[in-house]
């Protein structure tokens, strides 16, 4: 717990370290830090490096820089070996923004969008070995009039889970799974149709459960799970809830654009929010 705002947490593959962004009151800088899951002091790795993502072997981090003072904004993608030098995979771009969400032996998986953050946004694959690349290696999923976010490979590498946000229905989303080796316009598998705003889908280590957050039938977001058959590519059973947050004193952050969720064999890391307030009465105000 910190007197600051922690965002975009990412657990290392061995489950021993957490990379995250930190915003301090009164500062415009966004710190990139790494801390052990057992606690202790954190290490500062960079300033204004946003959305850290671990490499498959846990030795490097990918993240993005954004120039929010420009119109349209500009962004570039970087990789840094822990204790090593920083490399840039893209130049500063204001016509193409890539937001990485997962990383395996195939490359960096993420969302390609315009700098205005509007219009269609497909899922693409980006090679971590190409410096200064102008385009992604491959388009994995492209849905007309929709944006695909929060993409994650399943543990067996056969599936990709993501959130699909229709452009004509703001404030809603669909939890979706697609084949990792399919065509960009392949049929999609809807997972939690009962939920109007599911977000942050994350696989369990064995790939048999897909976790997500949702405000379904509650005033706040809660942690949910749903079974998945990795052989047939189908939902198993009904979604089930794992938390019951019902108070502003402690709840999952509703600011999902700046929140993150990570699942390991032992932990689920969530961006939480605490809200408190007081009512004061003044005496003698009429004197």
Name some characteristics of this structure.
287 residues; mainly beta; four-stranded antiparallel sheet; 24 strands
Structure characterization notes:
With 287 residues, the protein is mainly beta. 0% of the residues lie in helices and 47% in strands. It has no helices and 24 strands. It has strands at 5-11, 17-23, 30-36, 43-47, 50-54, 60-67, 74-81, 86-88, 97-104, 107-113, 123-126, 138-141, 146-153, 159-166, 174-179, 189-190, 199-203, 209-214, 222-229, 234-241, 251-252, 261-263, 268-270, 272-273. The strands form seven sheets. A four-stranded antiparallel sheet has the order 1-2-3-4, with no helix packed on it. A four-stranded antiparallel sheet has the order 5-6-7-8, with no helix packed on it. A four-stranded antiparallel sheet has the order 9-10-11-12, with no helix packed on it. A hairpin with a 6-residue loop joins β6 and β7 (74-81). It is globular, with a radius of gyration of 20 Å. The model has no long low-confidence stretch (mean pLDDT 88).
Structural category is mainly beta
Q: What is the topology, as strand order, of the major beta sheet? A: 1-2-3-4
User: What value does the Rg take, in angstroms?
Assistant: 20 Å
**How do the SSEs run, as a string of H and E?**
EEEEEEEEEEEEEEEEEEEEEEEE
Helical segment count: 0
| Low-confidence sequence ranges | none
* Number of β-strand runs: 24
- Give the helix proportion (percent range): under 10%
- Biggest beta-sheet profile: 4 strands, antiparallel
Q: Roughly what fraction of the amino acids lie in strands?
A: over 45%
Report the average pLDDT across residues. 88
Q: Report the principal-axis shape.
A: globular
* N- and C-termini, Cα separation: 44 Å
């Amino acid at each position: 717990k910190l007197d600051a705002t922690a965002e975009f947490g990412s657990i290392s593959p061995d489950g021993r370290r957490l990379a995250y962004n930190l915003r301090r009151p009164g500062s415009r800088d966004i710190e990139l830090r790494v801390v052990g899951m057992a606690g202790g002091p954190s290490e500062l790795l960079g300033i204004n490096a946003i959305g850290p993502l671990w490499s498959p072997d846990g030795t490097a981090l990918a993240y993005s820089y954004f120039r929010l003072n420009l119109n349209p904004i500009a962004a570039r993608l970087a990789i840094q070996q822990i204790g090593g030098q920083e490399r840039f995979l893209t130049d500063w771009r204001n016509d193409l923004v890539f937001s990485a969400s997962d990383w395996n032996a195939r490359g960096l998986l993420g969302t390609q969008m315009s700098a205005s953050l509007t219009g269609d946004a497909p899922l693409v694959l980006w090679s971590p070995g190409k410096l200064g690349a102008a385009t992604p290696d491959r388009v994995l999923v492209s849905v007309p009039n929709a944006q695909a976010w929060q993409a994650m490979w399943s543990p067996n590498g056969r599936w990709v889970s993501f959130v699909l946000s229709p452009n004509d229905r703001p404030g809603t989303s669909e939890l979706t799974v697609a084949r990792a080796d399919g065509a960009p316009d392949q049929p999609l598998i809807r997972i939690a149709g009962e939920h109007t705003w599911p977000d942050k889908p994350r696989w369990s280590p064995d790939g048999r459960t897909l976790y997500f957050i949702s405000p379904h039938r509650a005033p706040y977001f809660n942690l949910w799970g749903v079974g998945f058959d990795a052989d047939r590519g189908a939902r198993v059973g009904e979604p089930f809830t794992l938390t019951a947050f019902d108070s502003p004193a402690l709840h999952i952050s509703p600011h999902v654009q700046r929140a993150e969720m990570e699942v390991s064999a032992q932990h689920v890391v969530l961006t939480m929010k605490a809200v408190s307030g007081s009512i004061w009465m003044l005496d003698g105000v009429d004197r």
